[in-house]
Amino acid sequence: MANQNTPERTSLSPDLERRGMLFILSSPSGAGKTTMSQMLLTADEEIKLSVSATTRPPRPGEMDGIDYHFVDDATFDAMIEKDDFYEWAHVFNHRYGTPKGYIRKGLKEGQDFMFDIDWQGTQQLYQKDQQDVVSVFLLPPSLPELRRRLESRAQDSAAVIDDRMDRARGEISHWAEYDYVVINDDVDECFVKVREILHAERRKRTRQTGLIPFVRELMG
Ligand SMILES: Nc1nc2c(ncn2[C@@H]2O[C@H](COP(=O)(O)OP(=O)(O)O)[C@@H](O)[C@H]2O)c(=O)[nH]1
Ligand SMILES: Nc1ncnc2c1ncn2[C@@H]1O[C@H](COP(=O)(O)OP(=O)(O)O)[C@@H](O)[C@H]1O
Question: Transmembrane ranges (predicted)?
Fold first, then answer.
């Protein structure tokens, strides 16, 4: 069996074309989206991260263009003006948005993208492209554990952590809008579940555009 962190190809066949997928991970802050998305990106060479633009300042260790495109308010305004965003939203007193160009081009070429976005962005992507969106909501095992994770990440001030905890219930209230809900208790078990979802969704008949010519040929 392949090691769970080893890159692998998961296409049914390299010859079969399929539609790219918009794979969304949402959760209250601290429940584990970044952890899960990094594990999936390491383990699976067929999915790329959609790098959002944000007006929030970088955390220690975050890199411009890798974790986010860190922009100022004027630049974000200009991007809205130029219709550069697939979707954007206000979250925690900052603005976050998904730049369009890169995603559109990739999807056409059958590339899968992972989105670490909130429920507002998820709703907007569903409105634009219902067929290609797969959404997963991560729940923490408990609220005290959620606080413990925010504190253990040690990258936000006490006031920011309090604010995120205050908003957690509101974010959790959107759980039923998602295709899948996974409780992130043990990190490795959660990863296996999220990866199973990704693999199964790739095999959906409607995503495999190469099936029609394949079956035609199969049937002679
Ligand atoms: N709608 C939308 N939400 C985003 C985007 N990028 C990030 N977010 C969400 O903004 C929230 C705050 O993200 P961040 O500041 O990185 O904090 P974290 O969730 O604690 O890692 C999270 O719920 C993210 O999923 C985006 O492009 N669009
Ligand atoms: N299943 C888990 N058990 C324990 N700690 C976890 C688990 N998942 C994530 N963490 C830790 O919790 C903190 C918040 O996780 P992170 O992935 O940054 O959350 P988010 O991106 O949703 O804000 C990080 O320090 C991370 O290492």
Answer: none
